[in-house]
Amino acid sequence: MNYKQALAWLYRLQRFGIKLGLENIRRLIAELDDVDLRNARVIHVAGTNGKGSVCAMIDSICRAEKYCTGLFTSPHLVTFRERIRVNGEMISESQTAAGLTTIRELVREWDPHPTFFEITTALALKHFADAKIDIVVLETGLGGRLDATNAVEANVSVITPIALDHEKWLGDSIDKIASEKAGIIKPKTPVVVAPQPSEAENVIRARAGECEAPLQIVDHPYAKSPVALRGEHQKLNAAIAIAAVRAAKVDIDDAAIARGLATVEWPARFQCWDQRTVIDGAHNPAAAKILVQTWREIFAEDRATIILAVLSDKNLADICEALAPIADSFLLPKIQTERAADSTALQKVLVDLERNAEICASFGDAFVKARERTTPILITGSLHFAGEALAHLQGKPAAFEECAQ
Fold first, then answer.
1. Does residue 29 register a pLDDT over 80?
2. What does 288-339 look like in DSSP terms, one character per residue?
3. Total domains in the fold of the chain
4. What is the pLDDT of residue 16?
5. Which residues pair with 136 in a beta bridge?
6. Residue of 277, 278, 241, 178 lying closest to 50 (CA atoms)
7. Based on the domain organization, do 170 and 122 belong to the same domain?
8. Which domain holds residue 35?
9. Coil/strand/helix, residue 86
10. What is the pTM of this model?
11. In whole angstroms, how far apart are CA 104 and each of 98, 113, 140, 181?
12. Residue 334 half-sphere exposure, CB side, CA atoms within 13 Å?
């Protein structure tokens, strides 16, 4: 298969939906040739919000110390290849095609068939093993306990702030969600944790105790040098990243930490596209509240024209309520995913909050209208939407067009 054909095959697997469990990924790792990460230090990161930023910081710090790194994150924004990086470089189209071709032949008769995420995880692990990397940074896809990344033995487990999200799969309360996230804690393996709601902290402490796993709660922001990612919360993420690297017994000095944090890049996290346009993938109420805090740090009392698109399984009312205080008005584009919340439903929520909300045909249409106004522009509501917006602004095909035949 070529790259487009390989991706088309992989995306078709989404019809199998989300199936949490470790049997298929363990079988895949066992049957793929030479997926050996035993000589690498593995840092495994779970949580509801901030885990991607923490992963990016760990990767950047380690690269600044000249370690060879492998970074696995999700979802991608503009290209599938963003999910799998070695030393900051995305996996190539040819490597993606070759890896997926091998995996397709391997799993052709499997029942149950591996899912999109299981196969993507296996592709990443094989790519990292082939590159003989020093440090592996793995971001969970969903939850932790039964997430495909949990099939890998880690040297440190990291849990970023936990909040309500993905309740359909993880449970309808903080303690239930925390129980799934805490499933990445392994016997006698160090655990680095962000400050948590009390219900989550109790669950994490209990799991760490059962596993005799040393537990460190990081509650002081990093303040020694600049952090490239905007927002006070990113300074706490930086402190978590540093603690994780040290808990993994990676030899790192302060100069490398400073270089790594000053140069870290993580798009769609309060990304300033230009002087008046911000892109942020906040997609749950807790993330929206942090976004509002960061907006006020940067823009003070200025209100935004918010271009908003949210996925249908999210808490629309609470996200809108969190964003309303910084909104001058809302533009609601139809976005190109079947998972998007209906624009009319979103408009009704905002009208009930006494906010002006206009439905637009597309992101491009919404952005033109926003540019005609004098207010700053905030593009938010979903990482998938942030990716579509970035692709449009960069003049590139959107992620879903990558595999179009």
1. yes
2. HHHHHHHHHHHHTT--EEEEE--BTTS-HHHHHHHHGGGEEEEEEE--S-TT
3. 2
4. 66
5. 42, 70
6. 241
7. yes
8. 3-263
9. strand
10. 0.96
11. 10, 10, 23, 30
12. 6
